[in-house]
């Protein structure tokens, strides 16, 4: 029996996934969470094999929670189920420890196949993500600027692009304001941008935020 945790801020999505998983004899939903913070608590208190997690959630997002979940539960598989297409986030998140990445428009059976693969300790790589991996290997120097950011830089970049202040970011990520400013300086240099409005424009243009 594969024990699953569902993390999504929409109750109707969680309910739909729970209902769908109940139709498969080898799957059991062991717990649910509506935010990144709740997801961290879920893996701390519940025995899980695979966490199916959304990215966009109020407060602490899936991106913010990923590293902490990895630290607290290194053996739990993490399947990102997101409204964003693979090319926007998959590479960054797989590098940060996600076991797989699926777009919410995928065939529902693909989610089940991914869960079964991940529960065996393997990664689930879709053809689209495999293509991205191959392209990145072929053109290492030609990677998009945001793909060259570290995990923390990427988190800070997304929050700045959404208009959050250094103080807000520091609170959410449990960092000092000075550390956030250091990350901002570093990511600006790497991306060759000069202002927060440049960051927002870049993120919107590359469909990293809505």
Automatic annotation (TrEMBL):
The keyword Phosphoprotein applies. Residues 3-119 form the Response regulatory domain. It comes from Variovorax paradoxus. One of its GO terms (molecular function) is DNA binding. The modification 4-aspartylphosphate is found at residue 54. InterPro entries: CheY-like_superfamily, NreC/VraR/RcsB-like_REC, Sig_transdc_resp-reg_C-effctor, Sig_transdc_resp-reg_receiver, Tscrpt_reg_LuxR_C, WalR-like. It comes from the Bacteria. This is Response regulator. PANTHER family: TWO-COMPONENT RESPONSE REGULATOR (PTHR43214:SF43).
């Amino acid at each position: 029996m594969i024990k699953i945790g569902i993390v999504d801020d929409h109750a109707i999505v969680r309910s739909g996934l729970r209902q769908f998983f109940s139709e498969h004899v080898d799957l059991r939903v062991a717990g649910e969470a509506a935010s990144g913070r709740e997801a961290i608590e879920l893996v701390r208190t519940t025995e899980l094999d695979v966490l199916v997690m959304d990215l966009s959630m109020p407060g602490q997002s899936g991106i913010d929670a990923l590293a902490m979940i990895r630290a607290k539960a290194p053996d739990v598989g993490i399947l990102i189920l997101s409204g964003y297409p693979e090319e926007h986030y998959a590479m960054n998140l797989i590098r940060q420890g996600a076991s797989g990445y699926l777009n919410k428009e995928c065939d529902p059976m693909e989610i089940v196949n991914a869960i079964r693969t991940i529960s065996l300790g393997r990664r689930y790589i879709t053809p689209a993500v495999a293509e991205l991996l191959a392209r990145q290997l072929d053109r290492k120097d030609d990677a998009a600027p945001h793909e060259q950011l570290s995990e923390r830089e990427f988190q800070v970049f997304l929050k700045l692009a959404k208009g959050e202040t250094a103080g807000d970011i520091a609170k959410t990520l449990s960092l000092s304001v000075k550390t956030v400013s250091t990350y901002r300086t570093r990511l600006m240099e790497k991306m060759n941008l000069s202002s927060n409005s440049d960051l927002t424009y870049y993120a919107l243009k590359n469909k990293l935020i809505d």
